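User: Could you go from structure to sequence for me? I need the amino acid at each position, not a summary. Structure tokens:
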């Protein structure tokens, strides 16, 4: 459900708008902790929600998710038990904790949305390749900024 809301909001916005620190904390299977530092959080309401997606589930329902209380400026969301691999992250502000990207009457997100690598948002959702990053396991941090389109 998370990814469907991100994808729908991203498509509406596109239509209208024509790092890592390697270290410890590794489990036996190599999985660890990914910290996602999200800049551009506009309000101390609700949560910032992040989904970590493989190429096969990007812009769909993603297996790995996390959330943290929204903090204006930068909010860090931690995703645990993530196995090593190549992923893309997608995030949004869930100010009213309804687990959905709130949109205006035109379908434009009323909250910040974003993708890893600050993947460009044009007339279509970003490609997996533009948002992809390699997670080697252990304790790693990535960062990107939410974009605000209206509302």
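Assistant: Here is the amino acid at each position, in order:
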């Amino acid at each position: 459900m998370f990814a469907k809301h991100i994808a729908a909001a991203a498509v509406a916005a596109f239509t209208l708008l024509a790092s890592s620190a390697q270290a410890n904390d590794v489990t036996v299977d190599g999985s660890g902790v990914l910290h996602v530092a999200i800049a551009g959080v506009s309000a101390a309401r609700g949560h910032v929600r992040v989904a970590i997606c493989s190429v096969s589930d990007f812009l769909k329902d993603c297996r790995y998710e996390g959330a943290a209380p929204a903090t204006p400026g930068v909010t860090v969301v931690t995703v645990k038990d993530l196995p090593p691999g190549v992923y893309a992250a997608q995030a949004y502000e869930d100010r009213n904790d309804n687990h959905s990207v709130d949109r205006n009457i035109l379908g434009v997100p009323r909250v910040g949305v974003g993708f890893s690598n600050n993947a460009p948002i044009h007339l279509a959702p970003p490609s997996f390749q533009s948002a992809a990053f390699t997670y080697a396991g252990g304790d790693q941090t990535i960062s990107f900024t939410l974009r605000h389109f209206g509302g």
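One structural detail worth keeping in mind: The longest strand covers residues 32-41.
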